[in-house]
Design goal:
The structure is a single chain. The protein is an all-alpha fold and about 575 residues long. The protein has 5 domains: about 140 residues; about 90 residues, no CATH class; about 80 residues, no CATH class; about 130 residues; about 70 residues. Helix content is about 85%, strand content about 0%. It has 17 helices and no strands. The longest helix is centred in the middle third of the chain and has 50 residues.
């Protein structure tokens, strides 16, 4: 029996591990069960009335055990579904919390981090973490993603401004360092050694405080600087050759730098990142620069201290070279990964599947950003090859759509010409001929093709106004009028910018009307079962039967209309 089948079907669905996946089927099954119980109870009521009229005994059916059996299973399923919904909501809530934490971290980077390298490192960590966070509640998705996207725009805008300011500073620093060199050269004309020494220190401090210059200019600039520094030092050292106390002081200073250098070198085993090596290198180079500012010590001791200092530096830079050799291996692996991306982009650049290929290339571009940097030597060429493949496709796509736009403009002109013809058209007295002409206008308008998006609504409204004016003048009556006007309406809708949605709405409205009529008929049919076979009841029965027949006729007419709507 159907009742047992419904319970068995519910039992099978309720055993599904994923209660959320079968929710729709369970709800539909419950509706079927409720309809079944309602129908059976109605039949039971009709049977009771008939037995009462016949004067017979009647025992009503007991539907409670069936309902209890069904709803016991149904309630078990609802509890399991609630547990799974709660679990999903908890996960989505935690994911939302994680995304908000990442947004706050990105805000801190934008507002507080001044070092561009550190800022980019923090951004990459945040972005990788963001991609790994699972889904969140639907009502929060757009808000959270919009805020994150806005912060990304702010971040990259700040980085652009920083690069521009840095380039300006590099040029300014170059000129300032040239000024320092010019002043160093002028010291040769200063007679007082003490004045020379004081001026030298001042200029060296200025040199150190100025900051970096353009890489291409640095070596020549540095060489010229040190050339002048050494010239000045030669004068100074010559002056202090006979002053042993000064030499001993210089030796003591160098021993202090030696101790500091030894401390820096001792940390090389702790350096596990490029940043740590750079920081240690900066300290050691600073010590080297400082070493250069100290005059000579006693010849023998001076050489010994220098050799020891040099040995520390050599050991440090040997370890650094080994470390960066390993980094280069990493760069090579990244380069190989990027070359594979390039090969995929090259394979796609001749494609004419514009949407799918564009999506694939965008994904490859996103993937490119996540692979990492291949080093200065390889990165530029790899990027040039990848950019070239992408540009080849997107340039071809742009050209394609430009040609397509020209065709849309041609279609627009054609439709404007048809509208002008409709507006000047004079209806003939032959109604059949008039309908044929109007349909021909409609067919021509539809065949003209698509128009630019910005014009589609206006051109459709012009057409509809023109064609509807002629249909309104036709002398049609009754069923013929209804049929012709409906056909004309469908033909007009076919020309609208959103024909598919319009047809779907029309079908939905008609089906709703049919459903209402069927419900009315069901009520009329139920009422027939309660009428006694008396003279007065016969009149009521005939009235109800008339209403049933009228509803059937309306349903048939609506079904005919439904078949006239195109399947868009």
């Amino acid at each position: 029996m159907e009742n047992n089948a419904l319970i068995e079907e519910l039992k099978t669905l309720a055993q599904n591990e994923d209660a959320l996946a079968v929710n729709r089927e369970v709800n539909e099954l419950k509706v079927r069960f409720d309809d079944y119980i309602l129908e059976e109870e109605r039949k039971d009521q009709v049977a009771a009335l008939e037995a009462q009229v016949q004067g017979e005994e009647f025992e009503p059916k007991d539907f409670k055990p069936l309902k209890d059996a069904f709803f016991e299973l149904y309630n078990i399923y609802r509890e399991r579904r609630k547990e799974q919904v709660d679990a999903r909501n908890a996960i989505e809530s935690e994911n939302l919390k994680q995304k908000r934490n990442l947004i706050n971290r990105l805000k801190d980077v934008i507002e507080k981090e001044e070092n561009i390298g550190a800022a980019f490192t923090a951004y990459k960590e945040i972005h990788e973490a963001w991609k790994k966070v699972g889904d969140i509640a639907r009502d929060k998705r757009d808000e959270i993603q919009h805020e994150y996207s806005r912060l990304l725009e702010d971040f990259f805008y700040n980085m652009k401004i920083y690069r521009e300011l840095k380039e300006h500073d590099l040029k300014r620093n170059y000129q300032l360092k040239l000024d320092v060199i010019t002043q160093l050269e002028a010291l040769k004309n200063t007679e007082s050694i003490r004045e020379v020494e004081a001026a030298l220190k001042t200029l060296q401090n200025e040199w150190e405080g100025i900051g970096p210059v353009i890489n291409d200019e640095w070596e020549n600039l540095k060489a010229k600087y040190w050339e002048n520094v050494r010239t000045v030092y030669d004068r100074i050292n010559a002056f202090y050759d006979e002053r042993r106390s000064t030499l001993l002081e210089n030796l003591a200073k160098k021993k202090e730098l030696l101790a500091e250098a030894a401390a820096v070198v001792a940390t090389k085993t702790e350096n596990s990142s490029v940043k740590m090596w750079d920081e240690a290198t900066e300290k050691l180079l600073a010590l080297q620069e400082k070493w250069k500012t100290i005059g000579f010590g006693p010849r023998k001791e001076n050489e010994e201290v220098w050799q020891e200092f040099r040995a520390h530096c050599d050991a440090f830079f040997a370890s650094k070279k080994e470390f960066f050799g390993t980094i280069q291996e990493k760069f090579n692996k990244i380069a190989e990964a990027k070359q594979r991306i390039i090969d995929q982009a090259v394979a796609l650049k001749e494609s004419t599947d514009w949407k799918t290929t564009a999506d694939k290339l965008v994904q490859l571009q996103k993937q490119w950003k996540t692979v990492g940097h291949a080093g200065q030597k390889l990165e530029q060429k790899l990027w040039s090859d990848f950019r070239g493949a992408c540009d080849a496709f997107f340039n071809a796509r742009t050209k394609h759509f430009e040609e397509q736009d020209k065709q849309l403009e041609t279609n627009l002109h054609a439709k404007q010409t048809i509208i002008a013809a409709i507006e000047t058209y004079v209806l003939p007295t032959d109604k059949k001929q008039a309908l044929a002409d109007l349909r021909e206008f409609t067919n021509s308008f539809n065949a003209a093709g698509k128009v630019p998006m910005k014009d589609k609504d206006a051109i459709y409204n012009q057409y509809k106004t023109a064609i509807d004016a002629h249909y309104g003048k036709l002398k049609l009556e009754g069923a013929e009028k209804e049929k012709v006007m409906f056909e004309a309406r469908m033909e007009t809708l076919a020309s609208s910018p959103d024909a598919s949605r319009a047809f779907a709405k029309e079908k939905a409205d008609i089906r709703q009307q049919i459903e209402h009529l069927k419900n009315d008929m069901l009520q009329y049919e139920n009422n027939l079962g309660f009428f006694a076979k008396s003279k007065g009841a016969d009149l009521l029965r005939k009235e109800v039967e008339g209403k049933i027949n009228a509803s059937k006729a309306k349903i048939d007419a609506l079904i005919r209309k439904l078949k006239m709507i195109p399947n868009e």
